Amino acid sequence: MDLQNLRYFVAVAEELHFRQAAERLHVSQPAISQQVRKLEEDLGVQLLERTPRRVALTEAGKAFVVAARRVLHEADHARLAAVSARVRIDGQLRVGHLPDAVPPALPRALGRVASATPGVAIALETRPTQELIERVRDRRLDVAVVCLPAPVSGLRVTPFGEERVIVALQESRATAGVPSIGPQQLERMPVLVTARAVNPAFFDALIGAWREAGVAAPFVEVAEPNVEHLLLAVAAGAGAALLPDSARRRFAGHGVQFLPLTASPACEVALISHPRYTSMATSAFLQLAGGVARPASALQPVAAAS
């Protein structure tokens, strides 16, 4: 049993799909299938049930994936401890992110790097996509979290999960028990979105979703790149708002209800960094971030507190 096999198994256990796990780890599907089977042989137990239509964890697999995650987490810390013993990691880590999309993996990664590299001061900035990219290129930021596609040629791109779409509705307009809402149900009300320049990939995905549904997009672009501003406008009856799903985890108490968008498009989220100028702190962050990034979970309706 080795760490590589554990990483392969955890990816399959979380995706429940060999091809998607292989794409996530940037390896071939036969390679990941072979290594997971070898892990099962080494352990002497079946971890996964495989049929032509589905992959599921056995009871042994459910127990093992918890322990495997713990081992991988400890291995990351051990690796960083060895690096820190050889060369103390000091300095500053400058991280930029979008105003609307802050994936749950980001605070987890920041927490890990703060714990593993106490000599590093973390500075955060919030800017639109193009400004984040430019600041990484001219080395005013070490890492930025952006949604793809974006003009990132020449930069290092590290996959960091995905964002789907959540709809914010005034509580009085929300329908109890409805699991999701589609473009057709929003056709007759103003739909607030942040200006395209803030997050072009997300905005373009929305346009594509409305086009796919055969519905005109009644979007009202709000210049102020502030999620709270949008939610307060929704609570005041200005219409609905479309936001990255990660926003619902950060905001509550605005008199709104969050519902998933039916057949929501997915935007890939990535960390971008400079390929030639990488500090020890940046390398540590990218390494730890890869261990906490997870695919977006299935969307469920979430009601904000009044």
Structure description:
There is one protein chain. The chain has 306 residues and is α/β, with parallel strands linked by helices. The chain has 3 domains: 81 residues, Arc Repressor Mutant, subunit A; 97 residues, D-Maltodextrin-Binding Protein, domain 2, CATH 3.40.190.10; 104 residues, Periplasmic binding protein-like II (D-Maltodextrin-Binding Protein, domain 2, 3-Layer(aba) Sandwich). It is 39% helix and 22% strand. The protein contains 9 helices and 13 strands. It has a 6-stranded mixed beta sheet with strand order 9-8-10-7-11-13. Strands 4-3-5-12-6 form a 5-stranded mixed beta sheet, with helices on both faces. Helix 1 packs across helix 3 and helix 4 packs antiparallel against helix 9. It starts with a helix and ends with a strand.
Backbone shape: globular
Q: Based on helices, strands and strand pairing, what is the structural class?
A: alpha/beta
Span of the ends, CA to CA: 51 Å
| Name of the level-1 CATH class of the largest domain | Alpha Beta
Q: Helix count, per DSSP? A: 9
- The count of DSSP E runs of length 2 or more, i.e. the number of strands, is 13
Unreliable stretches (pLDDT < 50, length at least 5) are 295-306
Q: Which CATH architecture of the largest domain would you pick?
A: 3-Layer(aba) Sandwich
Q: Which percent band covers the strand fraction?
A: 15-25%
**Biggest beta sheet attributes:** 6 strands, mixed
Q: Look at the structure and name the CATH superfamily of the largest domain.
A: Periplasmic binding protein-like II
Estimate the mean pLDDT confidence: 86
The ordered H/E elements are HHHEEHEHEHEEEEHEHEEEHE
Provide the CATH topology of the largest domain. Answer: D-Maltodextrin-Binding Protein, domain 2
Rg from Cα: 21 Å
Number of domains: 3
Proportion of residues in helical segments: 25-40%
Physical arrangement of strands within the biggest beta sheet = 9-8-10-7-11-13
